[in-house]
Amino acid sequence: MTATAAFFFCLCLAFPPAAEAGLYTASDQVVLLSEQNVGSVLVNSSVAMVVEFYASWCGHCMVFSPTYKKLARDTKEWKPAVNIAAIDCAAEDNKQICRDYEITGYPTIKFFHAYSKADSSGVTYRGFSHDVRELRHRIIDSLESHGEPWPPACPPLEPTSEAEINNFFETNTVQHLALIFEDKKSYIGRE
């Protein structure tokens, strides 16, 4: 191999093409969206989706990506009720998808309810935080506004009534039940 060829080979390894240089991998617990799977993942899915639309060259996206990766790891137990996904709008094959979902800036985060229709562009999170805890709370708030049909794998998020507790003991043989009493603004039980 000549010195020029070796230099070019090393340069290609250091700076892969934009389509391959996305900010996320499957090991980040992030569902990677593309032209091939975006329809099957977002349309009529039984799972609610949080999607980051980003550009791999975008400085704000690069700064936000560690937070988004942490959010994905932090909420991995929420699957299969909610999935965290991302799509690189800088990849040539994804540009039309990002236009179709009305993406005008990066990063953009959108929430897609379970069973979203093909014409749904999702609910945009405006002014979202770089704090994982606050992002989790935004997801819970979005789930609570979900309506029907509810994601099948998602437990009810509203407080339990006295009648439900009484019914639990009438229909179960367990001797103990742990209850969490919390302030109405608390997210502990819902998380």
TrEMBL record:
One Pfam family per UniProt: Thioredoxin
Transmembrane feature ranges: none
Signal sequence residues: 1-21
Residues in Thioredoxin domain copies: 12-145
Keyword flag Zinc: no
Keyword tags: Signal
PANTHER family: QUIESCIN Q6-RELATED SULFHYDRYL OXIDASE, SULFHYDRYL OXIDASE 1
Protein known as: Thioredoxin domain-containing protein
Organism field: Ameca splendens
Lineage of the organism: Eukaryota, Metazoa, Chordata, Craniata, Vertebrata
